[in-house]
Design brief:
about 280 residues, globular, 5-stranded antiparallel sheet, alpha+beta, Enolase-like, domain 1, 12 helices
Length: about 280
């Protein structure tokens, strides 16, 4: 197997377009797929030496996160905790410390597991994705990208993510089999606008409920423009259980997840700190 280690985005794109190589981000999923034979690339393009893909910065009203930023780096970054709290929370419980040190946000999207921890927070926060392909560079809302089949072509490079600075309060919670090494069996990310004692627009995204993480527009609309109180949370629980019931249908996990999502939703709401700290 051939191995490439480009030092720039342009070099990586040229290699991808002239070979049958597969991008290597953190590799926590890809290496397992190589061992099991699920993935059999002819060559690998290691993106680890491209410094610009690791940047986390605030610019032009957006928080920008490079695709090669690791979950550990994101989870230790003050810009993320201040401007994308739900994503910061997701980074605290994603895998083990060893996995967080290697796994990248771009790899999380590229593999696109139903249980990918990074995707529900990004959806709730209204993130865009920056892609580079043969057609050039494209900025597309993550919610739209996740509706594509296939997700992207083999030679498309995920350059990074941008999260608009809309002053949202956000929270994230998940249910896993074990506290430390938990793969999410169910996750909920919520972002809300706060207008005094009322909420404005609400965005709710779920993971490990369907083929991919998704945002429920109906759920967001049902919870928008109301008083933010205990009754709001209880209504949210009722509505999110409906979403899970429809999404899972007759799957074996459906009865359990319809009940479990109530606690996960409640925990995500409880993680808001409306005095500050969870503003995204």
């Amino acid at each position: 197997m051939k191995y490439y280690q480009p030092r720039s985005v342009s070099e990586a794109v040229v290699i991808a377009q002239t070979t049958e190589a597969t991008f290597l981000a953190g590799g926590t999923d890809l290496l397992l797929h190589l061992q099991t034979g699920k993935a059999q690339p002819n060559a690998l393009i290691d993106l680890g030496k491209i410094l610009e893909l690791r940047e986390i910065k605030a610019t032009h009203g957006y928080l920008e996160i490079g695709s090669m930023a690791t979950f550990a780096e994101i989870g230790e970054n003050n810009l993320v905790s201040q401007n994308a709290f739900a994503l910061w929370q997701a980074c605290q419980t994603m895998g083990s410390p060893q996995i967080r040190n290697k796994a990248t946000l771009g790899g999380n999207l590229g593999n696109c597991s139903p249980a990918a921890d990074g995707l529900p927070p990004l959806l709730a926060l209204g993130a865009d994705v920056r892609l580079i392909s043969r057609e050039g560079e494209e900025i597309i809302p993550l919610v739209d990208l996740l509706r594509r089949t296939p997700l992207m072509s083999r030679d498309t490079l995920i350059r990074g993510f941008r999260i608009p600075g809309k002053g949202l309060h956000s929270g994230f919670a998940k249910l896993g089999r074990r506290q430390a090494l938990a793969i999410a069996r169910l996750s909920v990310a919520i972002a809300i606008e706060v207008e005094g004692t009322r909420v404005g627009r609400v965005r709710v995204a779920l993971g490990a409920v369907g083929r991919r993480a998704f945002m429920s527009e109906d759920l967001g609309l049902a919870l928008s423009g109301q008083e933010f109180n205990k009754a709001w949370t209880e209504k949210g629980i009722e509505e999110v259980q409906k979403v899970v019931r429809v999404a899972l249908g007759e799957r074996a996990s459906a009865p359990y997840k319809r009940v479990a999502v109530a606690g996960v939703f409640r925990e995500a709401v409880a993680s808001f700190n409306l005095e500050g700290g969870s503003k995204a």
